[in-house]
Amino acid sequence: MFRTTHRPDPPGGPACSHDAPQGRAGEPARVRRNLALPTVSVFRPVASLFLGRAVESSRAGPGAELSDVRISVVTPGELGASQTEAWREMRAHTEAPANPFMEPEFTLAVGRVRAPARVAVLWEGGEPAGFFPHERGPLGRGRAIGLGVSDCQGAVLRPGLGIDPRELLRACSLSAWEFDNLEAGQKLFEPDAADAFGSPVIEVATGYAAYEEQLRERSPRFLRTTLAKERELGRRAGGVRFVLDERDPAALRTLMSWKSAQYRGTGRRDRFSQRWTSTLVRQLHESRAAGCRGTLSVLYAGDRPVAAHFGLRSRTVLSCWFPAYDPGFASFSPGLIL
């Protein structure tokens, strides 16, 4: 995974721009070099985070011929079924983790709430050879699709497809492309990254019991303390239960209210104050697509929700996104119990 902003080099040399080190709530920084905190994601291999710099591009009309590659630019809703299936096939054959943010369903969802959303479709030999989801703003300023809430970004390309990033931007009528969580292995944009960080991973391929045993060996005090707090919370509240995939919209509203309060209390911008973000999350909660669907997990003390997490999952990856808890139960560390 990578964090970066991709935009044109000025005549005097490359500029640098990225999100300030405030995680998801930070405002994009403009033309400065700095480090950002890594995003926590549930991936198998350790991915990387890059802070990006600029790439030069001249303006051109949407769609272009690049050597043997033809590019057309459409809205996500204009993608046909054969194109989205080709997108899924390309992702299925990549060595990268099956990150739900890189699936077509995420781009389609963003397209329903973000008018500037676009997808560059790369064609070779009459067949789809790649997809570049992005948003196009004023003066050709480009952004990663869903920038600000998207935790994995980049292009989906057929292996071996040769294309220059500046040519791609020109074909999309972009003077810049800003990104803050570029996927590891995005060779097209990695040269314009300013830095890289590893992403924490929780590996549970061998089952939860094996993971707990590893945790017991590596962090015995942490595990003992957390389990003791869980037992105490259960005694006081009349039992504790965990729901992995809660479908009740009221539980999602509760999580969003907790998270909004947390943002405001820590002086960060409230993501859910933006209508498009809250609408996107609600729509993804309703999605049942195998490659990208919202999963709301809730910890209940008695009948009361005390902690929750909303993330996106594919068949093999659950990406951490919006965790929060009821501050009234902070002494029990319900977020850790969850």
From TrEMBL:
<dbReference type="InterPro" id="IPR038740">
    <property type="entry name" value="BioF2-like_GNAT_dom"/>
</dbReference>
<dbReference type="Pfam" id="PF13480">
    <property type="entry name" value="Acetyltransf_6"/>
</dbReference>
<dbReference type="InterPro" id="IPR016181">
    <property type="entry name" value="Acyl_CoA_acyltransferase"/>
</dbReference>
<feature type="domain" description="BioF2-like acetyltransferase">
    <location>
        <begin position="223"/>
        <end position="338"/>
    </location>
</feature>
<protein>
    <recommendedName>
        <fullName>BioF2-like acetyltransferase domain-containing protein</fullName>
    </recommendedName>
</protein>
<feature type="region of interest" description="Disordered">
    <location>
        <begin position="1"/>
        <end position="27"/>
    </location>
</feature>
